């Protein structure tokens, strides 16, 4: 599809992309990076479901997206409508993969077709002979099948040929395969698999998209097999490591085509396949039953001319039968009748109207804290133009987002007035539903550890938003009760955790079900004020040793005694200025007063913006502060809040200490050593070493940016993944 | 008004039974009645004084719930009272394009009353009705 969209742009066609969420893949994958690149480059234009438009040709990719009625209904007049059938209607075992009659019915519901022209028939474009042969005759509802298969296309420029095999390689031979990690993509038995991918001495087998768990029924795997997770290597790089490509799958599976095999051919890697594939790849591949594979491979390994001939045959096949230039010939005959049908139906606007605004509701829990709000601000501030963030929070720090100019609604939690959650939940659901119905957000981003019944009920009742639960890792065991809530959201996103290796909490069990992104930072390290500018803004004297202190804590983990010791120690050190940072919004506790001339108390938000002006920091190890300070290379003594309801701050701090990135002071363990810890923190040599280690951490994009991109893609989404109507 | 979709009763309180003569429901003996105090469009500088006055006069015999149009909740949290919030008129105007705030807030006000079932409502600043009318007027003026 990416190849076709890029080619359409090269042909001067204007292509719109309307994203659908289909019923097959539950995992919250982000949009493929190549599709995103086309959108970013303007080769393809994003379409909003609310936009009314006309298109000479509408291509619907994969019939499964029409298994349910499209919701909301697109407002698209289609001159011609073609459904690209990427999969047979039944698999090899006869199991129904999709109901063609239903697919066609839903296509007619979804798109406006001109009934009085020849273009009113829905066209079916099978991607291969396998799919074509599986079509019923006659086709239901007057559908017409395209005369030629719409085989997968490939842009040869993206798949350069690997070098020729040489004598120097001797007996070394690498065979491989690549597929998504699905057991059906492997032979039924170990005997068949071990025969298909033999590894005599000197040979290796590399499988991209597999792990031992996937193949556990095979028992002990050959030592020459190397299993690589899906996407562990760029596919092109992977293919260039191979001398031969071998592919077999389960007997019950029916492969419509073999995109991965075609890519191997394009790269000039000789291919050996199950004879089932002969109708697809003809003379371009070698064929044999599993036990016949090894002799074929031996010939390839030993006969350089034969290897080169097979490599060239594959490349030639890719070029002549799947080259991207075929695209123009495919769609040209459809565009003209499509244009005529549109003329009869409705005038075609010369330009697409701008994308309408789409609202995104950021919903969060927690009372006193601000962590969830700050994380949501990090995402909201990075949303694409046209996406309008609105906040609704149970946090008493609601003014944080309001002061940032964001619309903010406060919906009190059950602790407000000491209410019984059983009574509060339905009330809250009613309040939230009222907001949802009137605001009509396209996406709801829920940021919390606790998922309340009231939240779930309101979201389910509204049902018109794509719902995302953003939850951080490092849960305590007491939070396990919230794990099943994963199934109540359309997607769960887990911001990255530097200390992941010490995350022993319950969410680790669900890591395969969530979208993981790099750590979320409110302020990018590169967006901080310079040291000079920060010190000037903070009015700190030149030459002072600046230690910023933000302990957090509060009622759930009192730190008064530690604070007293800490300040006494620091303030007694010559040349030290202590900046004690209070929450930007005073919510509890008595006002603090400076204890000395070199003690200043100030609210500072966002604190990290000024952090280049600090020589060191003493900080709680909450998610936001921890990740900002470590990735911003600020020498820090972490004082974890070990309150029972908190995330595992202590493990974060331990990890940083063990990695030499920071120091740790646990309230109940390390106070006697506090002075020595501060000596180390303020020792220039030790601080420089910590800085260097932190600076050497792998650089990652800001997870907030990736989440914002994810929101953008799901704010203009058509739902095709669930039945329509109410289900009582 | 939208139909209620969830089974809502007064929070932490059993539904009050209407008296047989049709008069207002009565509090169960021993349960503190709720006093709802609205401070709509009242300057935050006056909050502490009002809070002290209300709690001194009614705190012993009532469960006090304050309805604010300002989001500086600190003084109220310090006294441990319950809070509700209605977005102030200036912010409604600022975010007027997002939704029909007067209709939403009118419904929210109804829900807040259902939630707490106040025995009495005291208004400092604007009454809720006046606040909601001004909200509607401002919306209509913007159209």
Structural commentary:
- The complex is a heterodimer of chains A (728) and B (143).
- With 728 residues, chain A is α/β, with parallel strands linked by helices.
- Chain A is built from 22 helices and 28 strands.
- Chain A has a seven-stranded parallel beta sheet with strand order 17-16-15-18-19-20-21.
- In chain A, α9 packs across α10, α12 (371-380) packs across α22 (703-714) and α14 runs parallel beside α15 (453-462).
- Chain B is of the alpha/beta class and 143 residues long.
- Chain B is built from five helices and four strands, in the order βαβαβααβα.
- Chain B has helices at 47-58, 74-78, 89-94, 101-116, 128-142; strands at 34-40, 63-68, 82-85, 120-125.
- In chain B, α1 (47-58) links the parallel β1 and β2.
- In chain B, α4 runs antiparallel to α5 (128-142).
- The longest helix of chain B has 16 residues, at 101-116.
Short structural summary:
The complex is a heterodimer of chains A (728) and B (143). Chain A is α/β, with parallel strands linked by helices.
Radius of gyration of chain B: 16 Å
Tell me the number of helical segments of chain B per DSSP (H or I, 4 or more residues long). Answer: 5
Main pleated-sheet profile of chain A: 7 strands, parallel
Side by side, the strands of the main sheet of chain B go: 3-2-1-4
Return residue spans of chain B where pLDDT drops below 50 for at least 5 consecutive residues: 11-29
Report the strand count of chain A.
28
Mean pLDDT of chain A: 92
Which percent band covers the strand fraction of chain B?
15-25%
Write down the overall geometry of chain A. Answer: globular
Instruction: Provide mean pLDDT of chain B, rounded.
Output: 85
Largest sheet of chain B at a glance? 4 strands, parallel
Write the layout of secondary structure elements.
The complex is a heterodimer of chains A (728) and B (143).
Chain A (H helix, E strand, L loop, with lengths): L1 H9 L5 E2 L1 E3 L11 H9 L3 E2 L5 E10 L13 E11 L14 H11 L1 E2 L9 E4 L2 H5 L10 E2 L27 E6 L11 H7 L6 E6 L16 E4 L6 H5 L4 E4 L11 H8 L4 E3 L4 H4 L4 E2 L5 H10 L1 H19 L3 H20 L12 E7 L6 H10 L6 E7 L5 H5 L3 E4 L10 H19 L3 E5 L5 H10 L3 E5 L20 E5 L19 E3 L13 H8 L6 E6 L9 H12 L4 E7 L16 E5 L12 E4 L3 H9 L4 E3 L10 H10 L4 E2 L9 H9 L1 H12 L7 H12 L2 E3 L9
Parallel strand pairs in A: 1-3, 2-28, 4-5, 5-6, 5-7, 7-8, 9-10, 9-12, 10-11, 12-13, 13-14, 15-16, 15-18, 16-17, 18-19, 19-20, 20-21, 22-23, 22-25, 23-24, 25-26, 26-27
Helix pairs in contact in A: 7-10, 9-10, 12-22, 14-15
Chain B lengths: L33 E7 L6 H12 L4 E6 L5 H5 L3 E4 L3 H6 L6 H16 L3 E6 L2 H15 L1
Parallel strand pairs in B: 1-2, 1-4, 2-3
Helix pairs in contact in B: 4-5
